[in-house]
Amino acid sequence: MGLFFLFKIMRKDFFYFINLRGIVRLSISILNRLIVKVMVDFTMIIHVRGPCEMGGFWFLATSLISLVGSVASVALYNSNYYDQDVKLEVETLQTVLGVLGIVWMSSAIAIVSVMDRKYLHTFYSLDMASDYKRKCFLSAGEDQDDLKSKVLKDHPDMYRTWGDELIKPWTLKNWDKWEEEKPVWFSDKWIEHVPNDYIPYDWRVKYNKTKGRVDDPQMRRRSSLQQVKMLMGGEEEK
User: Fold this and answer.
1) How does 23-50 read in b/e, with b if 16+ C-beta sit within 10 Å?
2) Residue 118 DSSP label
3) What is this structure's pTM?
4) C-alpha span between 15 and 78 (Å, rounded)
5) 140-168 CB burial, b ≥16 within 10 A, e <16
6) Whole-angstrom distance, CA of residue 199 vs CA of residue 172
7) Beta strand spans in 85-182 (E)
8) C-alpha count within 13 angstroms, C-beta hemisphere, residue 47
9) Distance between CA atoms of 84 and 91, rounded to whole angstroms?
10) DSSP three-state, residue 141
11) Does the pLDDT at position 227 exceed 60?
């Protein structure tokens, strides 16, 4: 468990992708990582091998550690370290261990034989959550803005290293179109998640929705002036 936590922390991949802040985010991340690690240790459930959860590398490492640990446990039990009057026969333990090993190996072979080969790398990949989000963004087509928009609902850590390169040009290019077409996902709630510099300058000034999110001093002065004009009966600047 400690090695898993240390591995995640050193790679800056410990915090969960949910868009939370402070102690809440830390608590959710610790709880989630703990639950997932325990689940994999005792069940080897393959559904949590993804980069946002366990990660392919640690899923494979945990599998191998479990096998080695089982053999080591039987050897330790058979040694003088465990000296009790009532002990199971070594042959019994070895038989059980052998059967479980065969079942594990057979299951692994069966999964690999029927799965789509393009997903094979997910069982040993070193991808982090941010890498996965980047791939999801790139895999979406030109007309799939709804899929691309989902990444901005995650915590900014998920796109901090690549957002300026990929997300920012996409939002700046399409914002006018979204304002005109008003797709379902283009809501006030979604806009609240968008970093200020990912929104076109003119819209940041004009947007009633983002008045509280303007952090440029020049824009703040212009926004305040607009509010004064409106209070005096003037029309809002377009």
Assistant:
1) eebeeebeebbeebbeebeeebebebbb
2) G
3) 0.73
4) 42
5) beeeebeebbebbbbbebbbeebbeeebb
6) 6
7) none
8) 2
9) 17
10) coil
11) no
